[in-house]
Task: structure prediction
Amino acid sequence: MKYIVLITGLFFFSCQTQGNNSGNTKKAAAEQVNYQKLDTATFAGGCFWCVEASFEQIKGVVEVVSGYAGGKKSTADYRLVSSGRTGHAEAVQIYYDPSVIDYETLLEIFFTAHDPTQLNRQGPDVGTQYRSEIFYHNDEQKKLAEAKMKELASEFSDPIVTKLSTLDAFYKAEEYHQDYEEKHPNNSYIVNVSRPKIEKVAKKFKDRLKNK
Result:
């Protein structure tokens, strides 16, 4: 469970888990995706609700799945991952059309959608499960990630702490986490934490938005 506590004024709200009440059309469309024509990227940058929605709006991104990476299959469960003791990071798996968008651009979006200088946290979300990490699928992705981190280092006032790891396995999160921002646009966490990140990406990559 993710929380924000603002000591001044004692204002409190949480990123609550809610049931799946929509998305059948999108799910049906996803089932028709020809994954053989797509490439895959896996990123962890804090709450997967935020990262998923940031990438969903980008042209060439066919599907984004929220899930867990970095730990074992037996502990790939939200309640266990939330303890911060399973080794997992909340992550997203991105299926994209390489003829429309390349991996390097996805990296640029990733480093815009979260703060890569925060160690084992993103804003109000604290714990190793919210770490910044790139799970590369091959040596080419690793080289591109290393180069992009060097390129962007001067743009941040603090050192980039993003980890680079080979992807051993990705485990899809529970269904109620999928497309969470779309299903619960008025959730307080979505409004106050996710939306600013999504809008930041939309502003910087406005020419790459699906609705353009």
The chain is about 30% helix and 25% strand.
